[in-house]
Design a protein that fits this description.
With about 180 residues, this protein is of the alpha+beta class. The chain is built from five helices and eight strands. It folds into two domains: about 20-45; about 55-170, Beta Polymerase, domain 2. Helix content is about 45%, strand content about 20%.
């Protein structure tokens, strides 16, 4: 073993400088090739097609379906007296979801009631089961994949301030109780 001036012991077969970089990259390439070979044996060939993406109209249909779900979940939160409910279209900003619902509750039992009602409706009507918090906290998150529900106590909502963090998201205007429903 040789003593490395950087403070670690290295076997004498290791090189320093450019030779070390080349040796490292060679080893990485070999390891990567072996990893891909193992994945190919396990899962078979995966082919990426440029045209494998959804058409723009299919994406819009998915967005509309997710929006409908998000608005209905926001209505449930409103029915359980959540305050300051916001639906944000975050798809252009994050790769992992389309919409955030952000709502304020004023106690942990109210957070529990909102979360339970949302989970029940999502499962019964849409067949969706969220991952995320099972018991109420000061910030409870229900992740439905395309829609993520955040239920906060007032202090936590002010502290985390997701609306400002995702300030470039599009705010979806929700129909109020006093407005007539939208007609097409």
């Amino acid at each position: 073993m040789n003593f490395n001036p950087r403070g670690s012991l290295l076997p004498s077969l290791y090189a320093y400088g450019k030779e070390a970089d080349d040796a490292f990259l060679s080893k990485v390439n070999e390891d990567t090739d072996e990893m891909f070979d193992d994945l190919m044996k396990k899962y078979g060939e995966v082919v990426f097609k440029k045209n494998g993406r959804k058409s723009p109209s299919a994406e819009l249909d998915d967005d509309a379906e997710s929006l409908s779900f998000a608005v209905e979940m926001a209505k449930v939160a409103s029915d359980v007296k959540a305050a300051d409910i916001r639906v944000l279209f975050v798809k252009p900003l994050v790769y992992w979801t389309r919409f955030f619902i952000i709502a304020t509750a004023f106690s942990r039992p109210q957070i529990d009631a909102i979360g339970s009602r949302i989970r029940d409706l999502a499962e019964k009507k849409y067949g969706k089961v969220p991952s995320g918090d099972a018991k109420p906290n000061s910030w409870t998150l229900l992740d439905f994949g395309d829609v993520v529900v955040h239920i906060f106590l007032p202090q936590q909502r002010a502290f985390y301030n997701l609306e400002e963090f995702y300030g470039n998201a599009t705010l979806i205007e929700l129909p109020s109780e006093t407005q007539p429903p939208f007609h097409t």
